[in-house]
């Protein structure tokens, strides 16, 4: 995905039929961009944990996720 925006992430979640059994992890730069875009759509309010359509969005702190890539991770049951 070239630019990870709020609308693009919503479409990605819907197109891939993701459920709350997964989380999405993003490169820190993409995470920050997405949060700022999300704040614009939600009158500067953000929920914790950060979720879009019930899918938790996390920031990669390990350096494993490349920029502009979306990593889907199964949640522990």
Based on the model shown, name its key terms.
alpha+beta, 2 helices, 31% helix
Topology of helices and strands:
Layout: H1 6-15, E1 22-26, H2 28-41, E2 51-52, E3 55-59, E4 70-74
Parallel strand pairs: 1-3
Antiparallel strand pairs: 1-4, 2-3
Can you walk through the features of this model?
A hairpin with a 2-residue loop joins β2 and β3. The chain has one domain (6-74). The protein is of the alpha+beta class and 77 residues long. The radius of gyration is 12 Å and the shape is globular. It has helices spanning 6-15, 28-41, and strands spanning 22-26, 51-52, 55-59, 70-74.
Mass-distribution shape: globular
Number of domains: 1
Percent range of helical residues = 25-40%
Mean pLDDT reading = 92
Radius of gyration: 12 Å
How do the strands line up in the largest sheet?
2-3-1-4
Beta strands, count: 4
Distance between the termini: 29 Å
Structural class: alpha+beta
Q: What proportion strand?
A: 15-25%
Short description:
The protein has 77 residues and is of the alpha+beta class. Helices cover 31% and strands 22% of the residues.
